[in-house]
Design a protein that fits this description.
The complex is a heterotrimer of chains A (466), B (177) and C (403).
Chain A (H helix, E strand, L loop, with lengths): L18 H22 L3 H21 L9 H34 L16 H10 L11 H17 L18 H10 L1 H11 L3 H32 L4 H6 L14 H17 L11 H4 L9 H25 L11 H4 L5 H10 L3 H21 L5 H29 L5 H31 L16
Chain B lengths: L2 H11 L4 E5 L6 E4 L4 H10 L7 E10 L4 E9 L15 E9 L4 E3 L8 H12 L2 E3 L27 E2 L2 E2 L3 H5 L4
Parallel strand pairs in B: 2-5, 6-7
Antiparallel strand pairs in B: 1-2, 3-4, 4-5, 8-9
Chain C lengths: L28 E5 L11 E7 L2 E8 L7 H5 L4 H9 L6 H16 L5 H29 L4 H21 L8 E2 L2 E2 L7 H24 L2 H7 L7 H6 L5 H5 L6 H4 L33 H24 L23 E8 L2 E8 L8 E5 L1 H6 L2 H4 L7 H9 L3 H5 L1
Antiparallel strand pairs in C: 1-2, 2-3, 4-5, 6-7, 7-8
The chains are: A mainly alpha (466), B alpha/beta (177), C alpha+beta (403).
């Protein structure tokens, strides 16, 4: 139950002038309007129906845009897509930050964010964003004036630009790049420059350490990452992400991860190396709080730090999206596309097809599921030391990736998908995958059922006066 | 071995070094002359019957009435190999080394028990006893540029330190307990 | 900005052979860790001389939390000084109180009633559990595992609830005082304590599954900061640091106090890896993992002691009856040095009386003070990421180091 601070007459108030006075007046006005609304919560009903309406619109859009609509109006299409992407890219970190804090809280046997905004602290992220915006603009005296200010933008821009080639559906992509995968990987790689810039320009030995570790780690892990990504490319025969996604439209067993055992392991290798390239635990040594205070972003505060954070969460999404497209069926559902053909051709049929048989909803759900696994690992595992990180990369991941590449090449040569043997292996792997997923579900359900209330206050009623 | 046995052993070996034996104290101790202290220390550590290999504590003491400072070394025997059995009768022993207030010098035993390193630095810092032969004798708890040795009975608190007020008029004028 | 320097003698510098580097010119980095740092466990400053990630030399600087408690001890009566002992090792306040109270009682020749002895043992061991939980949690945090920290504090909250019910305070108790304890237990406290013991026992195995045998954690801590048994004794280490090096020495067994000889418990010591299934491969006796794991095992032993003490808790006075009204004690012109085995090491109190009620000298020997002195010796040749691993395993509380 949130309580609101009530202003009293005659309290000390700051005196603004000029533009600040305008903004302050605006803020005061907004508060005067919003406070009674929020306090009495009569907006709950409108919000609920608003969400429902938005959902329906979204579903209709799913159905509508599974064909090349608006191909005749390229400028309008581009504008719409860019706007949509901008909104999406802003919302992903906002949601992920809140979600991460909730996930962390639940795993740590506590509630997570609960206060800001009322329902489970949904407004925490916007509140944090506003706080970061209004913080003091702090640049260390010895910091390089240009590079220090430039680094956050070098971190955020590439990952946002990666969305240019990232498809959410067959036609839900800004540009169909024939070399889409290389483009996305290249954009993710530019983040190294940002980190080194940030670390070096901060004029602090600790940040330089963080930057150097980061450079080592990210650059080293891009090799096994790239090699692991070569396997699905080789299977489908193109670097175009939309085509790779479309190749998995036949249902659960056609997902590339189940095509061959090498692809199965390659998905795992890709996931681990992507953790390293996103600097997520257990590879979060560059921002290892307990050693380097903040690593390369120690000296950053306010909006600049927030931009680094945004970049991290957007990169998490991009990397998960890549995994989903290349291994886990992209925007296709577990049901084969052909089954959706029977529905016919009307608006409703198209909408149902867009939701049930393959659409951006599936893509988003799968991506966020992978992001959840990334968060889960972060809050479970300790941090790996830099020499162990590089050992794991060069002496474990790299040979493994090479072996997988070789193995899969031979698999494709000698066991093309039409052969019975390949089909059998495919089905076996699909069954294993389904089994793992169901096992995970079973564990979750069992743990929810068996959760006990902990003995919280053990002896409080023994205190005098209790 | 009991305290009396150890004391008499020391008296035999180091005739002139042992100045005083105080068995009646709650924790009995022996006073050893400062110049001979390192050899006595080495003997206490290396003698097979004693093997007092664990320096528990070095306490500095201000004997204002006798115009001297003292360092009290508490020792013990601890098994120093892995998984050795606990000694059935662990020795503990205590040695007091007294020195003049004006020129407070005691030879360091950091070469005998490395644990003495920090303890002696603390005694130097807070009481002002200079340990000759210490590898790195500098202040450990007080700042490097602190003046005076706080634990001395005649220590006067500084009025200010780098602009920070150290005490108040009231404090300076009020009597101690 | 002042230049940081090592301020140490040349013969402490390690002779590090960097080998043939061709014409690559490498420079050493002088880097400052602390006094404000998330993992130095308080205001500890370590100046590291590094070649890249490898630490060539580390010099700890302490004294940032020095409050000259010993000088204060020369102007207060012993029972008035008890709260100051709380604030030395503030995580294990009960044990600190117990140590000082025992020293004063030995000096003044006070016999403590048996109920008070049992209570001291119970609270001392419960505080040992709470302290080891803090050490376990913060060590996980240093290694990057955020979750065990919160689980540890969840359990610690229950212990602190028990303490609060008994004496009103959660951190600085001043409960175990000269002559016994300040208050008796409230009704129902014993049952709650047993409830806690039953609840907590399986949690230790949970923590071992989550952190102690986690492969990443073992790789970070096994073989790191190895202190041999001989070195440990020479440098005055005590407590889990000494026992982690394989030395079977615990004051509760060797020089028992407060009736510890009545209780049946084991002393966990460090064991090498690979010999049996309970110690991971790669662990060397005297490394950080051993020191850490000794604490986990000690929590189990503490539970045993608490259960026995609760079962046999006698009735009677909780403090020498005379002290209920007036705790003033005349200290003879005599001296005493008494050590107790605290969670962080052996804490000794040297008290010199001079015939009045106020001691002439109080000296506190902190376990962390002596344990920390080995840092410069042990950190050589390891990576920067190992420095928090070593300091976390030594488990320092700066209040005890600086007093």
């Amino acid at each position: 139950m949130t309580r609101f601070w009530t202003p009293w007459e005659g309290r000390p108030r700051p005196h603004y002038s000029g533009l600040s006075a305008l903004l302050a007046g605006l803020g005061r006005g907004v508060y005067r309007v919003a406070a009674p609304v929020v306090r009495h919560r009569w907006f709950a009903a409108p919000v609920f129906f608003g969400v429902v309406v938005l959902g329906v619109v979204f579903v209709w859009l799913c159905g509508l845009f599974n064909e090349a609509v608006l191909a005749d109006y390229p400028v309008l299409r581009d504008l719409l897509v860019v706007t949509g992407l901008a909104i999406f890219v802003s919302l992903v970190p906002v949601f992920c930050i809140w979600w991460e804090r909730k996930v962390a809280g639940r795993m740590q046997s506590r509630c997570g964010v609960m206060r800001v905004g009322g329902w489970h602290g949904w407004a925490q992220s916007p509140a944090d964003g506003i706080k970061c915006l209004t913080k003091e603009d702090l640049v260390p005296d010895d910091a390089d004036p240009v590079l220090f200010r430039l680094a956050p933008y070098f971190a955020l821009t590439p990952v946002v630009v990666a969305f240019v080639a990232l498809p959410f559906g067959t036609y839900w992509v800004f540009r169909h790049l024939e070399v889409g995968l290389i483009f996305v990987l290249g954009m993710l790689g530019v983040e190294v420059v940002a980190v080194i810039m940030a670390g070096w320009a901060s004029a602090s030995k600790w940040t330089v350490f963080g930057a150097m570790r980061e450079a080592c780690q990210m650059v080293s892990y891009e090799i096994p990452l790239g090699i692991a990504l070569l396997l699905p490319v080789m299977t489908v025969g193109t670097l175009n992400l939309a085509e790779i996604g479309n190749a998995q439209a036949g249902g659960w067993h056609t997902w590339l991860v189940f095509r061959s055992p090498f692809l199965f392991v390659a998905a795992l290798v890709y996931f681990i190396t992507s953790l390293a390239s996103c600097k997520r635990a257990p590879f979060d040594l560059p921002e290892g709080e307990s050693e380097l205070v903040g690593g390369y972003h120690t000296e950053y505060s306010g909006m600049r730090w927030a931009l680094f954070f945004f970049a991290e969460y957007v990169a998490m999404f991009v990397v998960s999206a890549l995994a989903v497209i290349l291994f886990f069926g992209g925007w296709n559902s577990v049901l084969p596309d052909r089954w959706g053909e029977v529905l016919g051709d009307g608006y409703l049929a198209r909408a149902v097809r867009g939701v049930v048989f393959g659409g951006p909803l599936w893509f988003l759900v799968k991506s966020f599921l992978l992001i959840y696994v990334q968060m889960w690992l972060r809050w479970t595992l300790p941090r790996i030391r830099i020499d162990q990180v590089l050992y794991a990369c060069v002496q474990v991941m790299l040979p493994l990736a090479m072996v997988l590449l070789l193995g899969h090449t031979l698999w494709e040569l000698w066991l093309p998908p039409e052969l019975i043997a390949a089909r059998v292996v495919n089905v076996i792997l699909a069954v294993i995958g389904a089994g793992l997923l169901l096992a995970a579900l079973a564990v979750i359900i069992r743990s929810r059922l068996n959760a006990r209330r902990l003995v919280g206050y053990l002896a409080v009623d023994l205190l005098p006066g209790a | 071995m009991t305290f009396e046995q150890i004391a008499s052993l020391l008296r035999e070996r180091f005739a002139g070094a042992v100045e005083e034996v105080v068995p009646q104290a709650t924790r009995p101790y022996v006073t050893v002359a400062a110049e001979r202290w390192p050899e006595v220390a080495r003997f206490l550590r290396d003698e097979p019957r004693l093997k007092l290999n664990f320096l528990r504590c070095v306490s500095s003491l201000d004997l204002l009435a006798e115009d001297s400072l003292a360092a009290v070394y508490d020792l013990a025997t601890v098994p120093d190999a892995e998984a050795e059995e606990v000694l059935s009768c662990p020795h503990t022993f205590a040695v007091r080394v007294v020195t003049d207030r004006a020129a407070a010098h005691i030879p360091s035993v950091a070469g005998v028990w490395p644990a003495a390193d920090w303890h002696e630095r603390e005694a130097f810092d807070l009481m002002g006893i200079v340990f000759d032969g210490h590898p790195d004798l500098r202040r450990i708890l007080c700042p490097e540029d602190w003046v005076g040795h706080p634990l001395r009975k005649d220590y006067e608190f500084p009025v200010e330190y780098h602009g920070i007020p150290g005490t108040t008029e009231h404090e300076l004028n009020s009597p101690r307990h | 900005m002042t230049e940081i320097s090592l301020q140490s003698q040349p013969d402490l510098l390690v002779d590090y052979d960097r080998g043939e580097q061709g014409d690559v010119d490498t420079e050493e980095l002088l880097i400052n860790m602390g006094p404000q740092h998330p993992s130095t466990h308080g205001v500890l400053r370590i100046v590291l001389r590094c070649d890249g990630e490898m630490v060539l030399e580390a010099v700890p600087h302490i004294g940032y939390l020095h409050r000259c408690a010993e000088k204060i001890g020369e102007s207060l009566q012993p029972f008035q000084f008890i709260p100051y002992t709380d604030r030395m090792d503030y995580v294990a306040g009960m044990n600190q109180n117990q140590g000082f109270a025992l020293a004063v009682e030995k000096l003044a020749g006070i016999a403590v009633p048996p109920r008070a002895q049992y209570l001291r043992v119970i609270f001392g061991e419960l505080n040992r559990i709470a302290s080891h939980l803090v050490s376990f949690g913060t060590y996980g945090l240093d290694m990057g595992a955020f979750t065990p920290f919160l689980y540890a504090f969840r359990e610690r909250e229950m212990v602190l609830d028990l303490f609060e019910a008994a004496c009103g305070a959660r951190l600085t108790y001043s409960y175990l005082t000269v002559g016994g304890t300040t208050h008796d237990l409230p009704e129902g406290w014993v049952d709650r304590c047993l409830e806690f013991c039953d609840y907590f026992e399986p949690k230790i195995d949970e923590y071992n599954d989550l952190l102690s045998f986690n492969h990443i954690f073992v790789k970070r801590t096994a073989g790191v900061g190895v202190v041999s048994a001989g070195d440990a004794v020479r440098w005055g280490l005590s407590g889990p640091c000494l026992r982690g090096s394989g030395v079977r020495w615990d004051l509760r067994k060797a020089l028992p106090y407060d009736g510890y000889e009545r209780f049946d418990f084991d002393i966990p010591i460090g064991r090498p890896g690979g010999s049996d299934r309970t110690v991971p491969h790669g662990v060397v006796v005297g490394d950080s993992w051993c020191r850490y794991f000794v604490r986990m095992e000690e929590m189990k032993q503490s539970l045993r002691i608490v259960r026995q003490a609760l079962r046999d808790l006698p009735g009677g006075d909780h403090i020498v009856p005379k002290f209920k009204k007036n705790k003033t004690v005349k200290l003879p012109d005599d001296e005493v040095y008494l050590e107790v085995d605290n969670p962080r090491g052996q804490v000794g109190f040297y008290v010199r009386g001079d015939g009045s009620a106020i001691p002439a000298r109080v000296k506190a020997r902190g376990g962390s003070f002596c344990n920390l002195s080995i840092t410069s010796h042990v950190v050589r040749g390891c990576l920067i990421a190992d420095v928090p691993a070593i300091i976390g395993s030594i488990d320092v509380v700066m209040g005890e180091v600086d007093r």
